[in-house]
Amino acid sequence: MPDDIQAAHALISDDDSVDQIRDAVRALCAKFPGEYWREVDRDRRYPLDFVNAMTEAGYLGVLIPEAFGGSGLGISVACAILEEVHASGGNASALHAQMYTMGTVLRHGSAAQKDQWLPKIATGELRLQAFGVTEPTAGTDTTSIATTAIRKGDRYVINGQKVWTSRAEYSDLMVLLARTTPKDKVAKKSEGLSVFLLDMREAVGKGLTIKPIRTMINHSTTEVFFDNLEIPASCLIGEEGKGFRYILDGMNAERILISSECIGDARWFVDTATAYARERVVFGRPIGQNQGVAFPIARAYAGYKAARLMTYQAAALYDAGKPCGEEANTAKLLASEASWAAADTCLQTHGGFGFAEEYDVERKFRETRLYQVAPISTNLILSYLSEHVLGLPRSY
Ligand SMILES: Cc1cc2nc3c(=O)[nH]c(=O)nc-3n(C[C@H](O)[C@H](O)[C@H](O)COP(=O)(O)OP(=O)(O)OC[C@H]3O[C@@H](n4cnc5c(N)ncnc54)[C@H](O)[C@@H]3O)c2cc1C
């Protein structure tokens, strides 16, 4: 068996330390039951108590090296944490953002930037949960973003707009992508984009405006406007003009982590549907005795188990420092489809009660739909596989 697959298998079966972490996460999540998530969802409230509890337990610093105050563990462990949160009925969007957004600083930041920011991100003293890439006009075509950062002496002046910048109101820092050289002045459109680490505490009201967007899920997402916002030149991460590459470098990690959330959701849907199908009696028999009810649940189970293997393989490759674009993209595709199939089955199994808020099915159903659109839509994943794995002609 190749090393990477072996590593993935070891992780699934007998890694005691990861199992212990899973148990501990489940125990913590038990303190945040359905009622908690229903309430924050109803009020569209940031799940502050939950985020604080997870931060204090040290889970959000798992990917930060020990030298900067984190646990220095791999993405496989981060995946296990996120999967358990979702399988417990919760939602980990704020957690994954804090876990991996710092990767841009870790990989491409200067020694001084790492020393300044990473220890505080590791302890949770500072929240880095905002990632400003998407813009209303450019959409998925990231190299067409219109937000500019123009160098003036020891400052950059930022103008433009972002959309769907989640948690901007609850984050101290933001990783921002902006154009530093106009598109018509670079050889390749992917050049001339730069990444900044923005301290929003100093920027709000001085050229930075944040407006919440109300959405079908509780995601604290926003529109962000930059109007001659001046930031120190020291906010630039890495080299000016290389930012698109830096953002791409974080994509595999993000896809693997999102896959784990999808798998956690799928587990929750399958477990919840199974329990209900055993207990709900109609026509004098448990509904799960009808194969028309049981088989879709069994199919949803098989679907997420397969996606889980692919996710573990992608995580094992990532942790071994090997290329994993194919596996990370495949995992994200399969896991997001598995969670959505499980959601649909769980809702159908519950009949009318699936629509009642107190069962949490409708909330999880809404939440898990996101993953086929964000952080990257299914078509773009298929496009990656078509072009980069199958060698088909580029479509855009
Ligand atoms: C709740 C939520 C939270 C988000 N959080 C963040 C965040 O924190 N930071 C951030 O930067 N962004 C965030 N996003 C944005 C998210 O990453 C984008 O919505 C997503 O990448 C899709 O981009 P778009 O909405 O602009 O769709 P568009 O690019 O307008 O695409 C619309 C549809 O057309 C399809 N399409 C477009 N081009 C092609 C093509 N060439 N071939 C085939 N199909 C195509 C897409 O697949 C999609 O289904 C968030 C979005 C949501 C909804």
Describe the structure.
- The strands form 3 sheets. This protein has a 4-stranded mixed beta sheet. Strands 2-3-7-6 form a 4-stranded antiparallel beta sheet, with no helix packed on it. It has a two-stranded antiparallel sheet with strand order 9-10.
- Helix 13 packs antiparallel against helix 15.
- The chain is globular and about 80 Å long.
- The longest helix is centred in the C-terminal third of the chain and has 29 residues, at 251-279.
- It contains 15 helices and 10 strands.
- The chain starts with a helix and ends in a 7-residue tail after the last helix.
- The chain is an alpha+beta fold and 396 residues long.
- It has helices at 3-14, 16-29, 34-43, 48-56, 75-87, 93-100, 103-108, 111-123, 200-203, 243-249, 251-279, 291-319, 325-350, 361-369, 378-389, and strands spanning 128-132, 148-152, 155-163, 173-179, 193-199, 208-212, 222-232, 236-237, 281-282, 285-286.
